[in-house]
Amino acid sequence: MDGVKPSILIPLLLIIAAGELIVGQNCGCAYIVSEEFFGGLTSHANPSCEGNGFYTRDAFMNAWQSYPGFAESPSIDDSKREIAAFFAHVSHETTRMCFKDQADKSNPYCDPNAQGYPCTPGKTYYGRGPLQISWNYNYGPAGQEIGFDGLNWPEGVSTDAIISFKTALWFWMRNVHGIIGQGFGATIRAINGVLECGGGNPDAVNDRIHGGKLHRKKQQRKKRRKPLADARGKGREDENRWDDGGSKTPPTPFNLVQEASYQGK
């Protein structure tokens, strides 16, 4: 992502949670993704939006139970960063939790060469849900893992909120979770890098960053207490992995020199 500076990206993605978290219990999602936090996400959707009332915290928390590895890390700070990154992308993909379906439905997103996942006649695989999953080669395996017929009932992603969030977490865990330590830029590349990175769509990149900014602004109102202890019992004052404002050398993950070997959503 040419022109996107670490100093701009990093501060937008830090979630500052008040109080102590109980470490060693997955990621503390129930605490970090609080009612207040989720309400801040959905409050930006117009009352007339199709996604209004569909994307709920209860649906997310239910889906998360199937993917307890999401945002699980020895470091609470790393967990918060992953959650912030996830919802920054969700905010962008759904236009602030407004849309369940892709606006332009003219493309069926059917890849006839996707072995094992043939398109069902009359069905389309355009973007749906929090991360706008698309293509038959994503709907097929997502449905198999989650437990719904993604090829014959792709619309289930935009009619069942729990399935919807499960598909988003399925895609995230398969394509993004493993590279979260490389920085926010790497997550953009994993989700839509072919179209957006390398100057392909700077407006989209900036909007994803803005999504993180909304979370950061809300959390900044909370007062940070003493450093949290990680799962090994050591206090972590400042990891600086996503922050170049400290005394340590700024991180290098934003120098994205390798293409990821995944298929886009």
Automatic annotation (TrEMBL):
Coiled coil: none annotated. GO terms for biological process: cell wall macromolecule catabolic process; chitin catabolic process; polysaccharide catabolic process. Pfam families: Glyco_hydro_19. It comes from Dendrobium catenatum. SUPFAM superfamilies: Lysozyme-like. Gene3D superfamilies: 1.10.530.10, Endochitinase, domain 2. This is chitinase. The gene is Cht5. Residues 1-24 form the signal peptide. CDD domains: chitinase_GH19. It catalyses: Random endo-hydrolysis of N-acetyl-beta-D-glucosaminide (1->4)-beta-linkages in chitin and chitodextrins. One of its GO terms (molecular function) is chitin binding. Residues 49-71, 163-173 form the Glycoside hydrolase family 19 catalytic domain.
